[in-house]
C-alpha cells in the first residue's frame, strides 16, 4: 500500500510540475501579447492626428463637389430654360 501511495505522490508531483511549467509559459505569452497590444495602441494613437486631418480634407472636398454639382444643376436648368425660350 505504501508503494501505491508513493507512486501516486510521484505522479501528482510530476503533474504539478507540468502545470507549473504550463502556467509559466502562459504568463510569458500573456506578457508578450500585452506588449504587442500596447504597441498597436500606440501606433493607432499616433495615426489619429493624420486621420483627423484627412477627414477634414475629405469633408472639404465633399462640400466642393456638392457645390459644383449644385452649380451644374442650376447651369443645366438655365441652359434648358434658354433653349425653351429660343424655341418660342
What are the main properties of this structure?
88 residues; single chain; mainly alpha
Helix/strand layout:
Blueprint (H helix, E strand, L loop, with lengths): L1 H86 L1
Poorly predicted sequence stretches spanning 5 or more consecutive residues = none
Number-wise, the strands total 0
Tell me, rounded to a whole number, the average pLDDT: 89
Main sheet: strands, sense, barrel: none
- Please give the radius of gyration in angstroms: 36 Å
Helical content band? over 70%
Strand-residue proportion = under 5%
Reading the helices and strands in chain order gives H
Number of helices: 1
Shape: rod-shaped
Oligomer: single chain
Roughly how many Å apart are the termini? 119 Å
> Which structural category do the helix and sheet elements fall into?
mainly alpha
Q: Your description of this structure?
A:
- It contains one helix and no strands.
- It is mainly α.
- The longest helix is centred in the middle third of the chain and has 86 residues, at 2-87.
- It is rod-shaped and about 115 Å long.
Amino acid at each position: 500500500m505504501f508503494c501505491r501511495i508513493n507512486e501516486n505522490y510521484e505522479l501528482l508531483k510530476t503533474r504539478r510540475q507540468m502545470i507549473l511549467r504550463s502556467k509559466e509559459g502562459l504568463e510569458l505569452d500573456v506578457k508578450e501579447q500585452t506588449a504587442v497590444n500596447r504597441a498597436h495602441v500606440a501606433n493607432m494613437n499616433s495615426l489619429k492626428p493624420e486621420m483627423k486631418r484627412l477627414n477634414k480634407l475629405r469633408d472639404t472636398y465633399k462640400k466642393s463637389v456638392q457645390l459644383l454639382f449644385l452649380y451644374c444643376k442650376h447651369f443645366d436648368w438655365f441652359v434648358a430654360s434658354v433653349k425653351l425660350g429660343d424655341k418660342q
